[in-house]
Write a structure and sequence with these properties.
Strands 7, 8, 9, 10, 11, 12, 13, 14 and 16 form a nine-stranded mixed β-sheet that branches. A seven-stranded parallel β-sheet has the order 3-2-1-4-5-6-15, sandwiched between helices. With 334 residues, the chain is an alpha/beta fold. 30% of the residues lie in helices and 28% in strands. Strand 2, helix 2 and strand 3 form a beta-alpha-beta unit.
Length: 334
């Protein structure tokens, strides 16, 4: 049976622990956090297979490690787990950290383990949906992703910082830096979220999608923001974040060619972001636990057997949506 360690007992991490504890393929789960008070508070919420541990070291014999700590703290834990010979799933949504984790590719290959970068709601589910949607194309030349909402306090702080930081786009075969909070675009998400104004921000999605789609011309990432969000982004947060954000959503738009014609596919999902991230991370961990996955570091757009992973995500309660258009009659009605 697989033994797992989850670093992070916040809004996302605690959900991951519960999902792994409920799985028959996981023999034991250990949860660790840098805040002893938090661990003490959640100890009574843990399942029968879960115990509380301490410290950043990975116990001997650990098969699987999920890192769900705050963005910016995941790379060291992930590399230590790789060196211990464990399969590693991270949930980062930070550009610098995603670069550091992808740079650990050779380390992961040397230890013959998989290191998944950004297995959350976005990036994560968005990368998986991009891979699933790409099966409908002969060639994909544009990928545009966007999100609404935040998970726990750490996610809210990262959301706040990203609007005032440089964004990165992939355009015509090269990286382009853009100002955070620029490039307003009205994006439509699954109900009840519907249409939201979305802007560029410091999001790592292009770093994960470009290697998975050789030859792609454009990759962009945006997130929903209000006028107040953009105005206060350069300032410290004016109030303490909520323990967990409200309803969120993600969307993936792919453009390309199919049978000599232009083709567009838009996929999405609606959920509380902490729940969505936990489902994707837990499903990825369970997927890799039962699979001979190739060694190396990559995002979910390069995961083996993506259809099987999507079924695992759906089984845990996260159901993707597809945007369907319709033709209008001469009178303007469907």
């Amino acid at each position: 049976m697989t033994s797992a360690v989850v670093f992070g007992a916040g809004a996302t991490g605690l959900r991951i622990v519960r999902m792994l504890d409920d799985s028959s393929s996981i023999g034991s789960v250990e949860v660790r956090d840098t805040d002893p008070a938090r661990l003490e508070a959640v100890a009574g919420m843990l399942g029968p297979k879960t115990r509380v541990g301490q410290g950043p070291a990975v116990p001997d014999g650990t098969d699987l490690v999920v890192v769900a700590t705050a963005a910016g703290t995941q790379a060291d834990l992930a590399v230590a787990a790789v060196r211990a010979g464990a399969t590693v799933v991270t949930t980062t949504n930070e550009i610098a950290e995603a670069r550091d984790l992808l740079a650990a590719d050779q380390e992961a290959r040397r230890h013959d383990v998989s290191l998944v970068v950004g297995a959350g709601y976005m990036p994560g589910l968005t990368c998986l949906l991009a891979r699933i949607g790409a099966a409908e194309f002969d060639t994909v030349d544009e990928i545009h992703v966007a999100k609404v909402g935040t998970g726990g306090p750490a996610c809210a702080r990262q959301h706040h910082r990203s609007l005032s930081s440089l964004a990165i786009d992939w355009r015509d075969g090269r990286w382009t830096r853009r100002a955070g909070g620029s490039g307003r675009e009205l994006c439509w998400f699954p109900d009840p979220v519907a249409g939201r104004d979305c802007y560029r921000a410091a999001l790592p999605d292009a770093l994960l999608l470009v290697p998975a789609f050789p030859g792609v011309d454009r990759v962009t990432a945006r997130m929903a923001a209000t006028r107040r969000d953009r105005f206060t982004a350069p300032l410290p947060m004016l109030r303490r974040p909520h323990p967990e954000g409200g309803v969120g959503a993600v969307r993936v738009e792919l453009r390309g060619w199919r049978e000599e014609g232009r083709h567009v596919v838009v996929l999405g999902s609606q959920a509380r972001p902490a729940h969505g991230a936990a489902v994707v991370a837990a499903a990825t961990a369970l997927h890799l636990a039962g699979l001979e996955a190739p060694a190396g570091a990559s995002g979910l757009a390069e995961v083996p057997d993506p259809d099987r992973l999507l079924r695992a995500v759906t089984a845990l309660g996260l159901r993707p949506s597809r945007f369907e258009g319709f033709a209008l009659s001469r009178e303007g009605s469907p």
